[in-house]
Specification:
Elements (H helix, E strand, L loop, with lengths): L3 H12 L3 H6 L1 H22 L11 H4 L20 E5 L11 E6 L5 E6 L4 H22 L2 H6 L22 H4 L4 E6 L2 H4 L4 H20 L4
Antiparallel strand pairs: 1-2, 2-3, 3-4
Helix pairs in contact: 3-9, 5-9
């Protein structure tokens, strides 16, 4: 369970994003991070019931560090103001497979997944898969289970048709996607409720066929 104390820590961090404040509150961060790690392990256990590919992954493999890489950013705030985990068999460093994402942040928590800016070879393969099996893909994203949690495919998108595809292609809007993401927003009270782990399992179960379709295109 994600506690009120964790949310309070993240709220205060957002307003005091500097090293002095963080060092003075390091124990609070460690407590929040340990709580999140426990939760992610529970979430992994739930997802592994229908996606065996992540059965051997641990929360430590999936949770992102709170420290921001500010080397090439105008925003020099040193810390992220959320807790995040990318659940895939390759762990958080894997960007070449579709997976499940947990993002905990006051007023901005989400459960999401899919493929964010997949590498060129994989993106071409996904488009090829949609071209060849568009009916199957539309059945997945149009299903009642998927629509219960996700409104539409999100992510970066081309303004013009990708190379090799005509503007009149029946699935051209899907083919224009550069990312294939599904996002479910969650309010703070739901995150702090005792049944949030079950909510994660149900949302990710609805997401699983979407991820499987994207992953079957991996070159």
């Amino acid at each position: 369970m994600i506690s009120k104390e964790t949310f309070q820590f993240l709220k205060e961090l957002r307003n005091n994003n500097n090293r002095d404040w963080f060092n003075a509150n390091r124990e609070r961060y460690q407590t929040a991070n340990a709580e999140f790690e426990d939760f992610v392990n529970i979430a992994i256990a739930g997802v592994s019931r229908f996606d065996k590919g992540i059965a051997w992954v641990t929360a430590k493999d999936c949770i992102f560090r709170i420290y921001r890489d500010v080397r090439f950013s105008k925003d020099k705030a040193p810390y992220k103001t959320h807790l995040g985990a990318w659940i895939v068999k390759g762990g958080r460093k894997s960007h070449a497979e579709a997976g499940y994402y947990i993002h905990i942040e006051p007023d901005k928590s989400i459960l999401a997944g899919g493929a964010h800016m997949p590498p060129p070879d994989w993106l071409r393969a996904i488009r090829g898969e949609i071209h060849n099996n568009g009916k199957e893909f539309k059945k997945i994203i149009g299903s009642d289970a998927f629509k219960e949690y996700f409104k539409e495919i999100e992510g970066e998108k081309l303004q013009r048709p990708p190379q090799g595809y005509d503007a009149g292609h029946p699935d051209i809007e899907l083919l224009k996607q550069k990312s294939y993401l599904a996002v479910h927003k969650v309010n703070d009270n739901d995150v702090m409720s005792g049944d949030f782990a079950e909510r994660c399992k149900e949302v990710f179960k609805a997401l699983c066929p979407f991820n499987q379709f994207l992953n079957q295109a991996i070159p």
